[in-house]
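Reviewer 2 asked us to include a model.

Predict the structure of this chain.
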Amino acid sequence: MKIASITSLVSALVLALCLKGLHYFHLIKWSPVGFYKKLGLFQESSKLFHWSFLILCLFIIGFLLFIVLRYVYIIPAVLSSFLLGLFVTITLEWVVLDLPMQLSSFKKLSIPFMVVVICLLRFLLETANFHQKEHTAQK
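Predicted model (structure tokens):
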């Protein structure tokens, strides 16, 4: 569990930094902490709290992914991280940007965001697979 916690924390911090950079350089057309305003949560809170809560949420999601996906080490991490990353990023941006169900909507999706998420999922999955195989080999 210690490895899962450390890996998930690093992944959450890197993803939060990358989201901030992507938003700063206008590579994504939405704010990573803009969902607070949309949901009416923490509107009086500071930006530091918004980002800290986002990092906590990303940590929990990463930890759960690490725990669940370490048991699918039979599937190569390259394939599973690519497919899962594409599915998550396309779905997230489709919902956030409120895109219509048209083929032209794919042009509005952020490729740098997809690459960051896929790379971080690969990091999580490769680490989980390595430690699961190591744990299995020790038995």
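The chain is about 70% helix and 0% strand. The radius of gyration is 16 Å. We have added this to the supplementary material.
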